[in-house]
Write a structure and sequence with these properties.
alpha/beta, 22 helices, 18% strand, 6-stranded parallel sheet
Length: 563
């Protein structure tokens, strides 16, 4: 059995901390922390280090160094009570905003709660006294390039989180498996610095670094706006800038950016980015991510495949790149984003916008018209006027994200709970929106989301909000049919397919709510939303087997047109 690459894991963390700016390390002797100590010993000429036996004293010693230098000092200790002895210094650092980074060694997950010696619960042991905590995975006998990016990314975030937005303590807990000493495979590799993550962070106090153009973005630039963007981002200023610069943009439906009619907007992005040839033929040089991750499955898959450098723009220290391919993270108020982009985007390849716009236009007539989830979503957006649309999670929001197109004759505003993308609380959230707005609200959700928040029908009954609840009833779990598990029919049928036998009409009757149903596109065409008295519920009874065929057929059509 091959031994784990403990030193490689430790070295990835230590080297990245050094690369980010950590120059001082304080170590207390211990066995389990051997990989970390070895990693430090290989970098002696690049750092200052001190060996202090007592961890309590070591904590306060590091505190003193950090007070004087105003830079994070790293603390290394073994497992068990060793890490607990840092606590007094951690508390003091928290209340005086002193940056420190704790690297605590730990037993592997398999030895926790198993009676193993010198093993305590080190998970979030410092509670709310740290800015950031990560319990890292146990080292394995081999390591992939992606795992390297994740580990160096974790270290880069740790350094940044100790300084911004408020200085304080960060805790990384590293489990190691015996043997703890370096393996033969690691000996040669560790003579050199492990290749760094190339992640850089810029805070408003450092943004003047862009004035000299060293970090400007050139060539083929693509902007992707996620599902949650800064509230103080002026969308009109952003639109004017992108049109002036000629920068293509992909915008999640929840950004409400599409409603502005930006001329550089790429609307058929789902079909374009899902193409297997896109990265080979049309990959951008730089992708600028604004806000949190997009709802689109195809966009997220593309972000894994692309070779472009990635830039994150956000208003806080939250990390919004699950691929760990970010090379620059910029934190600044949303109101400063247009100015930042104006200063940093230079020498644009305008032909890239022309190319993507041409692809976009070629897919205009590809949207499904069938009586399927995606086809019905497309039809509803043609019918609904001047209202707020609350989109529940799972397949519903993704379908509307695909089909929504700008129309100068409509005024639609989209909302959703995309923070953690749960299917709970959608009815109650939509009712809360409706009772706080002058607009009519349409809450669109799947049958499982409807069932999950059934108790909130009592709120509808009590307050009679201006809300229409539209339920896509596909007998449960439509999104799972777009995932690879759908190919495993036996397991899918038993564990993922969630058909429900409840009667939505009877539920509405129990809450004295007007109920309507449609079972075909013809009956949906005859439904007049403007004349409906609110509140009401419309059940759209879909054929379960229609998914994922309609979605896959759409992607296939797009790929054929792009071939």
């Amino acid at each position: 059995m091959k031994t784990p690459l403990n030193l490689t894991y430790a070295q990835l963390i230590v080297d990245e901390l050094i690369r980010q700016g950590v120059t001082r390390f304080v170590c207390s002797p211990g066995s389990r922390s051997t990989p970390l100590v070895f990693a430090i010993s290989l970098r002696k000429e690049h750092i200052k280090y001190h060996i202090i036996i007592d961890e309590r004293s070591a904590g306060f010693f590091a505190l003193g160094q950090a007070k004087e230098t105003a830079q994070p000092v790293a603390l290394i200790c073994t497992s068990g009570t060793a890490v607990a002895n840092y606590f007094p210094a951690i508390v003091e650092a928290h209340y005086t905003n002193i940056p420190m980074i704790v690297l605590s060694a730990d037993r592997p997950h398999s030895l926790r709660d198993a009676g193993a010696n010198q093993t305590i619960d080190q998970i979030k042991i410092f509670g709310g006294y740290v800015n950031h905590f990560v319990d890292l995975p146990t080292p394995q006998p081999s390591i992939t390039d992606h795992e390297r990016k994740v580990l160096t990314g974790i270290a880069a975030k740790a350094y940044h989180a100790s300084l911004f937005p408020t200085k304080g303590v960060v805790h990384l807990n590293l489990p190691f498996v015996k043997p703890l000493e370096p393996t033969e495979e690691e000996t040669l590799e560790n003579l050199k610095f492990v290749k760094g993550s190339k992640i850089k962070f810029f805070h408003p106090r450092k943004l003047n670094g862009f004035e000299n153009g060293d970090d400007s973005f050139q060539g083929k630039v693509l902007i992707i706006m996620g599902a949650i963007i800064p509230d103080d981002l002026d969308l009109f200023d952003l639109k004017a800038l992108l049109e002036q610069k000629g920068v293509p943009v992909v915008a999640d439906v929840l950004t409400n950016f599409r409603s502005l009619g930006c001329s550089t907007l790429i609307q058929s992005f789902e079909g374009i980015l899902s193409s297997s040839n896109f990265v080979k033929r049309f990959d951008p040089d730089t992708i600028i991510l604004i806000g949190k991750n997009p709802s689109s499955i195809s966009v997220n898959k593309f972000l894994y495949k692309t070779k472009a450098q990635k830039i994150q723009l956000s208003t806080n220290s939250d990390w919004n790149d699950e691929t760990y391919q970010t090379t620059l993270k910029v934190e600044l108020p949303g109101e400063q984003i247009p100015e930042f982009l104006n200063n940093s985007i230079t020498q644009i390849d305008t032909g890239y916008l022309s190319l993507l716009s041409s692809l976009d236009k070629s897919l205009d007539d590809s949207l499904p018209q069938s009586f399927s989830e995606i086809g019905v979503a497309n039809k509803l957006l043609q019918m609904l006027e001047d209202s707020t649309i609350f989109l529940a999670n799972s397949s519903v929001i993704r379908n509307f994200d695909i089909v929504y197109r700008f129309s100068p004759h409509k005024s639609l505003r989209f909302l959703g709970n995309r923070g953690v993308s749960g299917i709970d609380g959608n009815i109650s959230t939509a009712v809360g929106v409706a009772l706080s707005s002058e607009n009519r609200v349409y809450a669109i959700m799947g049958d499982l989301a409807f069932l999950h928040d059934l108790n909130s029908m009592s709120i509808v009954q009590k307050y009679k909000p201006k809300v229409g609840i539209i339920v896509f009833n596909n007998s449960g779990g439509g999104l799972f049919k777009r995932l690879p598990i759908f190919q495993h029919k036996t397991v899918f049928s038993e564990f993922y397919s969630t058909p429900q036998n409840f009667n939505i009409k009877d539920i509405c009757a129990a809450f004295s709510l007007d109920y309507y149903e449609v079972t075909a596109m013809e009956s949906l065409n005859r439904f007049n939303f403007a004349e409906m008295e609110t509140p009401f519920c419309l059940e759209i009874k879909l054929i379960s087997d229609a998914e994922p065929e309609a979605y896959l057929e759409y992607l296939k059509t797009c790929q054929n047109k792009m071939a």
